[in-house]
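Q: My labmate handed me this sequence with no annotations at all. I'd like to see what the chain might look like in three dimensions before we decide whether it's worth expressing. Could you predict it?
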Amino acid sequence: MSFSDLGLTEEIVRSVTEHGYTVPTPIQAQAIPVVLTGGDLLAGAQTGTGKTAGFVLPILQRLSDKTVKGPSAGRPPVRALILTPTRELAAQVEESVQIYGKYTKLSSMAMFGGVSLNPQIQRLRSRVDILVATPGRLLDHVTQKNLDLSSVQILVLDEADRMLDMGFIRDIRKILALLPKQRQNLLFSATFSDEIKLLADGLLNSPTLIEVARRNTTAETITQTIYPVDSDKKRALLVHLIKERQWFQVLVFTRTKHGANRLAEQLNKEDIPAMAIHGNKSQGARTRALAEFKTGKLQVLVATDIAARGIDISELPYVVNFELPNVAEDYVHRIGRTGRAGSEGEAISLVSIDEMDLLKGIERLIKREIPQQIVAGFEPSATAKTVTAQVPGRSGGRGAGRGQAQVRAGGGPSSAKPRQATTPRSVPPRPAERRSSASNHRKP
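A: Here is what I predict for the chain of 444 residues:
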């Protein structure tokens, strides 16, 4: 099957083909015809499946339909609104709109926080057919009356599960109230939780359901390995693995912003080029770190869950869980950054004794036991064990009881500190990041 077989126009197929992609992925093959008909869609797919093209391509075609007349006077309205949970993802989706819409006359814009409002206000004074935005910044512009959403024909909620996990449900409801009742709705989610089902029930009208992968599963192309190690030896083990195995483009996850900063500093002291990205970093710093990481100039990127949400690198080889997430589903989303679109990848987790309960929860979720390897010189202490201690005035996030922390016998608090759960979610391959394979069967 080719993209033209899906009913896409010659102009759109041409832009896809120019980037080396000829065969649609399963999510694209199923979603594109549905979106072209104007029907609502509820789609679930694992990360790296190409879902962005699954909605961008048909949206471009629908808005390019010359038989649909716009307003006879005044500034052309925003006709398609794509909501994403993070700045990085908004920028990457809008980049896909520009690339795939190369031969259309449609105009697009990315809108997100962390940067000045004024350039966005200036941009909104000209034509914007497709707006890709994060909920908070979108509402900022609405409040200041810089933006009118009353003519939106197509709404996309991209990575809807992550938006709910990040607390955007109130903002989403406010935005929905600003849109016309008659519109096409497309909801994309990695998982179909009860909250997603409730949102879908209130948003979608007789939707087509697509689910191309069993929920909460990990890609078969990802090799998963657990390295048991004492918590105070994790950094030394990570340095050993990176140097001895000559790893490059390593994405490392920590639970906290402070932990990410500290680990990046320690890696740099070991002559391993590393940078940290998290919510406290400026947008410029995050963009610069991502750019250097993608080009290979930066060997290691240390990230918190939410900050990593926009990271989409073709054939990213290594993901390391320096600390296991408190929420089992986050493990799936973290390691889904590698092994994308058929590429192979490795997911390595450094697990201390006080994280064994978290590991069991992850293995229950993915319905498999993850192989374990002991690295010589980093064997975990045979006497280490955990107890549950009361810590006054502290409360954990999901997965931790109130006022409790795991403490190692004979030692201080472990690295598994309670935290407010943060959840990433991966994004699909973008056309700008072409695969290095010379295969004739590339996918957007």
